[in-house]
Amino acid sequence: MLDLALLRRDPQRVRRSAERRGFGAGFVDEVVELDARLRAAKTATEALKAEKNALTATIAKAPDRAAEAARLRPVIATLEERIAIAAAAVPPLEAAIDALLADVPNVLDDSVPDGSGEDDNVLVRDSGPPPPLGFEAKPHWEIGEALGILDFERAAKLSGARFSVLRGPGARLSRALAAFFLARAQERGYVEIAPPLLVTPQTMWSTGQLSKFADAMFYDADAGLFLIPTAEVPLTALHANEILPGEALPLQYAAHTACFRKEAGAAGKDTRGLIRQHQFEKVELVWLADPQKSFETLERLTADAEALLQELELPYRVMLLCGADVGFNAAMSYDLEVWLPGQNTYREISSCSNCTDFQARRAQIRFRRDPNAKPELVHTLNGSGLAIGRTLVAVLENYQQPDGSVLVPAALVPFAGFETITPDGVAH
RNA sequence: GGAGAGGUGGCAGAGCGGUUGAAUGCAGCGGUCUUGAAAACCGCCGGCGGUGAUGAAUCGUCCGAGGGUUCGAAUCCCUCCCUCUCCGCCA
């Protein structure tokens, strides 16, 4: 949620950000106007209420309360009618402002480059040109099915399209990735959390998933609970409605969870393989940071995710997202893209974002810089460290051998407990 | 799912329907004292919003949430949520 005060103070900045996102800026003038009317209505209402409260107090102080009450009742009744009329103007104005603001994305940071789509994202750095395999690269689904460690047919039998079954060494490798990611996260100061995977609409709202993305999520109307599309939701909202002591910051959380997405708008896209599933696993990294340090924190978070790719020796690049590509909640984002030789392309494996105070305002996550200071909103950041399914894809495609076997990255061996999957699908 | 108890400020814990935004204690902050610290003593010490200069001041609002009764509700009534205890069920 945008800061109304910012909108009042610097509408030009909000307008420019919206335009750079390709989001209409018409809401700015509308909100500013509604806000002025809202404050006028509130001031009027509150003046009348103050009048009424003063009369009530005189009753309380009168020697004969009953007599005084009887005397003032008609006056108060008149006031009450005027209060009701004045107050009636407030909720519609609030609702109108909320409705306008609910779908407005965060204000972009000035350092975000202009652009109209992912082709305008800016390459920040990469791990060098991907080393050639020296033979015809196969896509991961062919590798995995040949080894008997990926089974999409049986997954479809069980659950329909966009599900997968991992078997034997495939399942073990996936579990090893999770353990590896969590171990590194812990070494870098993240506290591991095992959160609920089902959360309330309120929680979804607080981290910006509602109401814009409602149709992309699994929801049980009966229970009134959403399946999380990412652990960003419970991790970020963990301290909702809290005022943290200043020395508690920064807070770093990591969670390995399943994530659930309908991918409603993705029909026909990435229909093969593990890239786009209704259910996938991910280790998510979240920071609650001092607002003055959130942009350096974004560099740190990105480096933490990047280090995982380096250690796995997977070719990757870091992209700074352009204005049109930055997500709803974020002010600035880096995408980590891993090289997939089977598809001859880079694919997103982590998106690291500084959401500034946008989620914190919705979730009311605050802190006191000093014990007597006014509460301030924290800044929230999130990124995958990393997406497990997509990392498995990258390992299969980058570590495939001419004979159909797959090597396990050295860093992963201690977690997997094996070094290779031979062409017969056996782990050694 | 059934029965009972309870939800008040950072914590603990009071609160006859009427200057109660809320006693008291602890914690925190500022100060006195001290070479320093502790102790003692004094003062301050909730959130949100409006007016105002992001100051002083002032007003409104909030005692789990939402309604209701009343001139007036933390205090009475209704609904919901949550927590705890016991029983049942269960991975």
Write the layout of secondary structure elements.
Elements: H1 4-9, H2 11-21, H3 26-61, H4 65-88, H5 90-102, E1 122-126, H6 140-147, E2 150-151, H7 152-159, E3 165-166, H8 169-187, E4 191-192, E5 198-199, H9 201-206, E6 219-220, E7 225-227, H10 232-237, E8 242-245, E9 251-260, E10 279-289, H11 294-311, E11 316-320, E12 332-340, E13 345-354, H12 358-363, E14 365-368, E15 375-377, E16 379-387, H13 388-398, E17 406-407, H14 413-416, E18 420-421
Parallel strand pairs: 4-9, 8-14
Antiparallel strand pairs: 1-11, 2-3, 5-7, 6-7, 9-10, 10-16, 11-12, 12-13, 13-16, 14-15, 17-18
The protein binds one RNA strand of 91 nucleotides through helix 3 and helix 4.
Write up what this structure looks like.
- There is one protein chain.
- The protein has 428 residues and is of the alpha+beta class.
- The chain has two domains: 4-102, Helix Hairpins (Orthogonal Bundle), CATH 1.10.287; 118-421, Bira Bifunctional Protein, Domain 2 (BirA Bifunctional Protein, domain 2), CATH 3.30.930.
- It has 14 helices and 18 strands.
- The chain has helices at residues 4-9, 11-21, 26-61, 65-88, 90-102, 140-147, 152-159, 169-187, 201-206, 232-237, 294-311, 358-363, 388-398, 413-416; strands at residues 122-126, 150-151, 165-166, 191-192, 198-199, 219-220, 225-227, 242-245, 251-260, 279-289, 316-320, 332-340, 345-354, 365-368, 375-377, 379-387, 406-407, 420-421.
- The chain has an eight-stranded mixed β-sheet.
- Helix 3 packs antiparallel against helix 4, helix 6 crosses helix 13 and helix 8 packs across helix 13 (388-398).
- The chain starts with a helix and ends in a 7-residue tail after the last strand.
- The relative contact order is 0.14.
- The structure holds one RNA strand of 91 nucleotides.
